[in-house]
Amino acid sequence: MTQIEFRSDNAAGVAPEILTAIGDANTGTAIAYGADDLTASLEWLIREVFEHPTARVFPVTSGTAANALSLAALCPPWGSVLCHDSAHILQSECGATSMFGGGAVMRGVRGNDFRIQPDTFRAALEAVRWGDPHHSQPAVLSLTQPTDMGTIYSLDEISTLTAIAGERGLRVHLDGARMANAIAALGCSAADVTWRAGVDVVSLGATKNGALSTEAIVTFDDAAADELVYRTKRSGHVTSKMRYQSAQLHAYLTDDLWLRLATNSNRQMTRLAAGLADLGVEFVNRPDVNMLFARMSDDVATELEAAGLLFYRMPGSIRLVTSWQTSDADIDAALDRFRTVCEDAA
Amino acid sequence: MTQIEFRSDNAAGVAPEILTAIGDANTGTAIAYGADDLTASLEWLIREVFEHPTARVFPVTSGTAANALSLAALCPPWGSVLCHDSAHILQSECGATSMFGGGAVMRGVRGNDFRIQPDTFRAALEAVRWGDPHHSQPAVLSLTQPTDMGTIYSLDEISTLTAIAGERGLRVHLDGARMANAIAALGCSAADVTWRAGVDVVSLGATKNGALSTEAIVTFDDAAADELVYRTKRSGHVTSKMRYQSAQLHAYLTDDLWLRLATNSNRQMTRLAAGLADLGVEFVNRPDVNMLFARMSDDVATELEAAGLLFYRMPGSIRLVTSWQTSDADIDAALDRFRTVCEDAA
Amino acid sequence: MTQIEFRSDNAAGVAPEILTAIGDANTGTAIAYGADDLTASLEWLIREVFEHPTARVFPVTSGTAANALSLAALCPPWGSVLCHDSAHILQSECGATSMFGGGAVMRGVRGNDFRIQPDTFRAALEAVRWGDPHHSQPAVLSLTQPTDMGTIYSLDEISTLTAIAGERGLRVHLDGARMANAIAALGCSAADVTWRAGVDVVSLGATKNGALSTEAIVTFDDAAADELVYRTKRSGHVTSKMRYQSAQLHAYLTDDLWLRLATNSNRQMTRLAAGLADLGVEFVNRPDVNMLFARMSDDVATELEAAGLLFYRMPGSIRLVTSWQTSDADIDAALDRFRTVCEDAA
Amino acid sequence: MTQIEFRSDNAAGVAPEILTAIGDANTGTAIAYGADDLTASLEWLIREVFEHPTARVFPVTSGTAANALSLAALCPPWGSVLCHDSAHILQSECGATSMFGGGAVMRGVRGNDFRIQPDTFRAALEAVRWGDPHHSQPAVLSLTQPTDMGTIYSLDEISTLTAIAGERGLRVHLDGARMANAIAALGCSAADVTWRAGVDVVSLGATKNGALSTEAIVTFDDAAADELVYRTKRSGHVTSKMRYQSAQLHAYLTDDLWLRLATNSNRQMTRLAAGLADLGVEFVNRPDVNMLFARMSDDVATELEAAGLLFYRMPGSIRLVTSWQTSDADIDAALDRFRTVCEDAA
Question: Count of domains in chain D?
Fold first, then answer.
């Protein structure tokens, strides 16, 4: 029986268009460390895609690098980064931001649906003793869009939060490891969900959505960009053969490939969720994009594994993630297996 | 007129065997962050290639990452890393080791031919006030093999230096950004030039020799390896799709591909150097591998550039580097152009 | 009307015995940086007071230094320090531990009475993905004794928590900024509340209890001590005229001066609390030592200030702290003023 | 036979005026962490003494803290601090600047008389690849005045160096661990040797010249000062009982006490040097202030030690330092002993 992959979009392969772009870039020689033509033209492409005349781009090789370097460029060592309690930067990056940020700290903020809310954010800011050096001073708001639990912020919600941040002088980072999925779900532009909504620096994910170890930091803030020139290099995140990453990002952002890939993963999740809802499965989150946390007893989860479904288990629930590679047939087959197991369990 | 590339082996492309390996790895899905089968079997391949039963391997995406993370794992924050005055880690990594190492410092040691010598190394160690906390305590010897100026250490020279290091409790790192070139030139084994000669941790270069943003840290020291599990992750150097890097390293180390590629670049440099010597050009270094620093007046250098030769310029000299991709025809054509320019200049 | 000081024991002066000791040390010359005789003999005194044959001592100049350097010596950069949500190291040191610890992070643990409890501690440990490098790995338990809210752990409670820590390999730090007050309240020995209960390193406070910018790190763990030799120096916490700090610590620990001073502050708080309870004032905490958080309306607090009482205000409560310097007359006068204001308010 | 102290001015005691000031400050209570009146008025005193309307002051407890925190506030993590090869910050602070500076590096510059010279400084700056992120970018010039070898820069020399620094955008730090000695020797004002000569931040030493573990950072640059508010706190260098340090600095800077103390140590050195010159002793340095490095065979040095003279030994030379406490009688007696030993040796 074939296994069906729902562990992570990170488990998916490289999209054919992107693999082709790597091969196409492999002609002749080119100067190293991002001084090549493909990387130069990438900056123009980013400006076009994001509709921002001075945006800058720094290809890096992991989302942790994109996040932690961005945040270090935005936050002084005595500052703090406010993010949701469930944020990847707080829970899953082993203190990368504190390391790169010279001891900057991260503070979790509560909020329903795994999202920071205006009132919880305001309360967090009001509890601060501003200007008192005993206390790390909030300097950055980091929003995860979509969140690590698969929910998204509306454009209005982002604007409201960034406006509150602005009142206190905080700059805004957006962890967009799955940003294409959010844009596809919202039906908005890349500009709408970032700088037009008050975001200064974006971790633009590509790896989970079909690229090969390639992410990018996109800045709308020249002070941060000027720091990132050095911060990326000294952390080993300026690859010598950067042209192969730039080639990927060209392919990714051209002809809306990134949105087409994300639209598939979102659509397959919608189908999967609908099918599971029909089976009476309860959800922990609202599956706005390509991630679903479904309540499932341990016994049923074990049977689902035995049925060839691959997913992550938590106590009382399982995580299901679709990707650019998930097919209609995958979902159909998966729902068949869910049905069989769930009916047996009932 | 076609340009001929001698700026850097970093400017070369990806070797066809390695590009094929990336494509071959792109089937199905696989668990992320190095928990995949290709990465697991890479460790066994490394143990075979290095003839060491407990060697461990950490694929990373840049040489700076390999060096700085290795050194941070070997050196306490109050320690110092001794390296040659000309070493890349001291001159060209923007303080990466000090950052990752919590403020560890690098101390340059003098030596002819861009190599540390037993007497200069001993003198550096004797000048230390051991145990005095006012002074950073030497904790690591880092050797660059081949050096940044294209010279190599003999196996005896390495063993002598690592023995001196051992007397003082220093551990030993080898920056092998071009290690394949050194092995090809020495005609030794990977074990001979590393752990058998007293090396604890190696930055194993692959990118300059045909890989795509892939290097590896190889450890013969479990304490360092245990730290690297965390140090690589929190610095953003554990890529989620690591299997594509592991696939490259498999191809690179299989059937001696790495040595065959390096043998070509060394051989083309030997041909180039012989031709230039015939033209009466003087050399700054002894071109042991694939790098040559040749004395050249500024005027002649400008004419060589006009003749379509690509190289780096320094005051009074130029740097020429061959790669796995340099062909016999490249060298023949280059020597023709050198001959024309030099004869004009004479 | 004289003001009566309840803002902080930090606001108190230097105890006469300690000022005398400084003057007495000011004879002749002595070698700098702690190589003097007074500092050497301090180590023996510490071993006697703590009944531990290999304890070591590092005089420093602030509690933040004592805490952050101790924790950096106990916690690897990828580790985390677990402490109570209200702990000074988490709330009031501006990320010092993260800075000195190379990006180590602090995680708050909940617990009644401002103390970590066995069940909340166990739950925090069980939620960890051990060995997964995405997650900072808990490496240290830091207990504040007494807590920042004036409560204390019993000896059994400490032993229970350190035993749980030990099961997971965590080492234990005790923030003893007011440790003398805890010992005086518990009627135990310095050994009982530290190494006999499973503590590895102590921040031994003296400044709040009558010393002049002098605290000490006391270690029962040689690995931590060996690191502290360098960590204290490179952070600027090895004063050149250390003998004047050592002289203070001699006086502080001789003839139980530290306990006599703390006994006074505890006793005055007991008197104050009893008086306030008689007036019907409600307490936020159980005033185990010399700190009381009392519920007080904003209006009443303002009147108390007008009556010459000095204290810190929080929304709906005030903080009152007694010190070695607080006299019977201070408490009598303070209670008179409380009575007047409270009766007016009633 | 009484021993005569020439090891270090750090070995001297606390000046009586300063000890008195500590005692005088010990009345009543005062709010902690530098919010007290003595600390507030210290800022005004500093502005008067340095004739600078916006100078700010941060009392700290060691010279290493003053230097490393100042430099971290002036230098970005990817920057470098240029200083003389012999500078304390490079040789004797165990990488403190690299730690506090997030991996900033220090680069030694050569120069006769242990001083940076305009040509060696220019050469160091010209060798930099500006704007290339492979290279730490020079951001600060740190001058030691007087140098660690007892020589001083003239006011013109400082101005020349700071002007060169300014051309490249470097800011300027002055390590004034013995600044009073330099001012006394130059007969200039505190303003002349600092901001009027182009200095932005000063480590103002006091401990070696009669204070008790008290130094100060003085800034003429508000951006650095704003950072130091947080940097001093999170490194544990904001003592809670700061008023006792501020009281010392008041006494130190009032009625020229600092200059009177330094004048004595300089004068005693002049007498000692003259006497030694008469005996035919050769000097390694020009004893501009209170430090002399004198050539001395190992045998003679041993005999001098046997004669009760306390000093530091280096191969072939000894270091002699006078202090505020050195008396005419000390020098007379010392010269007698030198004469006896040297005549015996002749």
Answer: 2
- What is the distance in angstroms between the Cα of D255 and the nearest Cα belonging to chain B? 35
* Separation CA D158–CA D145 (nearest Å): 9
Q: Which residues in chain D are contacts of B104 at CB distance < 8 A?
A: 95, 98
- The SS3 call for residue B72 is helix
The answer to whether C182 touches C193, Cβ cutoff 8 Å, is: yes
ipTM exceeds 0.90, yes or no? yes
CA distance C141 to C107: 10
Q: What is the DSSP letter of D83?
A: E
Do residues A119 and A185 share a domain?
yes
Contacts of D68 in chain C (CB under 8 A): 236
Token output for B83: 């390296």
Domain that residue C309 falls in: 4-12+258-345
Q: Could you give the percent of chain B with pLDDT greater than 90? A: 95
Q: Per-residue pLDDT for B346 more than 80?
A: no
Question: Are the beta carbons of D207 and C60 separated by less than 8 Å?
Answer: no
Tokens encoding D49: 């003494």
Nearest CA in chain C to D91: C234
DSSP-derived 3-state class of residue B65: helix
Do residue D241 and residue C31 have CB atoms under 8 angstroms apart?
no
- Residues D119 and D149 occupy one common structural domain: yes
Say whether C133 and A98 touch across the interface (CB within 8 A). no
Provide the b/e sequence for B299-328 (b: ≥16 CB within 10 Å). ebbebbeebebbbeeeeebbbbbbbbbbee
Taking a C-beta distance cutoff of 8 angstroms, is the pair C232, C58 a contact?
A: yes
Chain A neighbors of B310, CB-CB under 8 A: 29
Q: Which of A94, A102, A135 is facing C133, going by the closest CB pair?
A: A94
CA distances from B145 to A167, A237, B96, B110, C235 (A): 54, 23, 19, 16, 35
Counts for chain B of helices (H) and strands (E), in that order: 13, 12
Q: Tens digits of per-residue pLDDT, A300-309? A: 999 999 999 9
CB-nearest to C78 from B133, B137, B231 is B231
Tell me how long chain B is: 346
Based on the fold, state whether residues B317 and B233 are members of the same structural domain: no
Q: Report pLDDT digits (tens) over B230-283.
A: 999 999 999 999 999 999 999 999 999 999 999 999 999 999 999 999 999 999
Subunits touching A (CB < 8 Å, at least 3 pairs)? B, C, D
Looking up tokens 């499973």 gives C198
Hey, are the CB atoms on A235 and B99 less than 8 Å from each other?
yes
* CATH at residue D335: 3.90.1150.10
Identity at C126, one-letter amino acid code: E
Q: Give residue B271's region: left, alpha or beta (phi > 0; psi -120 to 50).
A: alpha
Q: How far apart are CA B214 and CA B225, in angstroms?
A: 18
Answer yes or no: do A237 and A277 share one domain.
no
D292 sits in which H/E element: strand D291-295
